[in-house]
Amino acid sequence: MYLFRKQHPALSIGTTLIGLASFAAQAAMPGNASSSAADDPLLRYQWHVSNQGQAVIGDSRPVAGVDMDVDILHALNIRGKHVRIGVVDSGLEIRHEDLAANVIPNGSYNFMNGSNDPTPSGPGYDHGTQVAGIVAAVGWNGHGGRGIAPEASLAGFAFGEASSVTEAGIRYAWGDGPQSSVMDVFNFSWGNIGPFYQDFPLQDQQSWDALMQSTRSGRGAIYVKSAGNSFLCAVGTRKEMLSMLAATLRARTVSAAAWPIKTPSIICSARSQSQAWTRRANAPRILRLDRRYGFPDLAG
């Protein structure tokens, strides 16, 4: 994660202390993990979690050492325990073998059928499950991969498709519902695009502000929203949200493709995938900034 603002001294001190942790401690697994479950089989492909220059899915290897250093935090027992993360998305498969142990019982909501089961109705609505895995897949259980916060608690708020999204539903998912009101962090890996900034009446703005500030026992939850979502740009961000636009660093070579423009509403960027668009024949290629994987990393 790259912050555009000056780093607070406490962050520098914390980073230094973490860096002094012994390599033996960094490699340690939880005391309650059996040796047979020490390795998550897909972890070696998650170069953003731990990058030793190993072979990953692709035609070449990433540059060793370019990762999020979360393996060090995990070794220091900083794994998201007691933190509740709400994934507002198309759906979340709460019985998935690598998620179930972290799912809050009856803590989710499905806006399509009114139940507490956000499990997607079909393969076209599995995006939220992917996001939840990146954020908080269970670690050291011998299944799948490992989340950024492998001991965090998960809840899903499933809209299914765009036609199911209403203002009342968004308010419910953002803290107005009994399940969402207890969330500490909200992950929004979705968005839409419009030709102009929406003009919200002051009364509406104050209403949304009051809602977002009322969560987490009046302290306000952490709302993380992507500034882009599989397109060139987006308009309409809120001052309460940690907006993010993924910097497209190629997983194969880890060479910078592009960085987002520094603006007041875009606070940080993260590694993601690189793609390109062309407006017309013989025109310069237009780089697409895609937050597909970097954004859930930030929420974790």
From TrEMBL:
User: What UniProt keywords are attached to this protein's entry?
Assistant: Hydrolase, Protease, Serine protease, Signal
Q: Name one GO biological process term.
A: protein processing
Q: Does the keyword Hydrolase apply?
A: yes
Superkingdom to which the source organism belongs: Bacteria
Please name the PROSITE patterns in this protein's record: SUBTILASE, SUBTILASE_ASP, SUBTILASE_HIS
For the Peptidase S8/S53 domain, which residue ranges apply? 80-231
Annotated signal sequence range: 1-27
Q: Name one GO molecular function term.
A: serine-type endopeptidase activity
Give one Pfam family, short name only.
Peptidase_S8
One Gene Ontology cellular component annotation held by this UniProt entry: membrane
**Classification via InterPro entries:** Peptidase_S8/S53_dom, Peptidase_S8/S53_dom_sf, Peptidase_S8_Asp-AS, Peptidase_S8_His-AS, Peptidase_S8_subtilisin-rel
PANTHER family membership: NEUROENDOCRINE CONVERTASE 1 (PTHR42884:SF14), PROPROTEIN CONVERTASE SUBTILISIN/KEXIN-RELATED (PTHR42884)
* UniProt record similarity statement: Belongs to the peptidase S8 family.
Return the protein name. Answer: Peptidase S8/S53 domain-containing protein
